[in-house]
Amino acid sequence: MGASEHVAKRDRWRALIGRQAESGLSVRAFCRQESLREPSFYAWRRKLAKQDNEPATEPTGTGPTFVAAQVVDHVAPAIVLQLTSGNRLELPATLPVAQVAELVWRLEQRVSL
After folding, report:
1. Cα dihedral across residues 15, 20, 21, 24: positive or negative
2. What is the mean pLDDT of residues 78-85?
3. What is the pLDDT of residue 42?
4. Which residues contact 107 (CB under 8 A, 6 or more apart)?
5. pLDDT single digits (tens) 52-69
6. Are residues 41 and 1 located together in one domain of the fold?
7. What sign does the dihedral 39-40-41-45 (CA atoms) show?
8. Three-class SS string for the chain?
9. How many domains does the chain have?
10. Residue-range definition of the domain harbouring residue 1
11. Model pLDDT for residues 13-50, shown as the tens digit of each residue
12. What pLDDT is stored for residue 64 in this prediction?
């Protein structure tokens, strides 16, 4: 695995761990929802926490030091629901599927009352 592949994998797991924390779901429920192996989730969470807590090493050379960076210039996609009432509801794409389903179900229940 090349350095860029390792960075991409690390960034993917960092994003997944962040989404789980924001989701309000247990690790088990989140892993089930995302089709992830629970032991892999815990292993990556430990590994990334360890990396985050290690102090940065000082450069040993006299030349400039470069750090790999990825610039992303886009707007996060959204989930757009067109309700039967004619209203439009925009939700962040990072909202867990279970929460979107619960919201739609509750809105539909309200309409039928």
Report:
1. positive
2. 74
3. 93
4. 83
5. 876 655 555 555 556 666
6. yes
7. positive
8. CCHHHHHHHHHHHHHHHHHHHHHCCCHHHHHHHHCCCHHHHHHHHHHHHHHHHCCCCCCCCCCCCCCCCCCCCCCCCEEEEECCCCCEEEEECCCCHHHHHHHHHHHHHHHHC
9. 2
10. 1-54
11. 999 999 998 988 899 999 999 999 999 999 999 998 88
12. 57
Amino acid at 95: L
Positive or negative torsion for Cα 11, 14, 18, 23: positive
Tell me the angle at which helices 3-23 and 38-53 cross, rounded to the nearest 10 degrees: 100
Give me the phi and psi of 65, to 5 degrees please: -105, 130
Residue 35's pLDDT is: 94
Residue 104, in any domain of the structure: yes
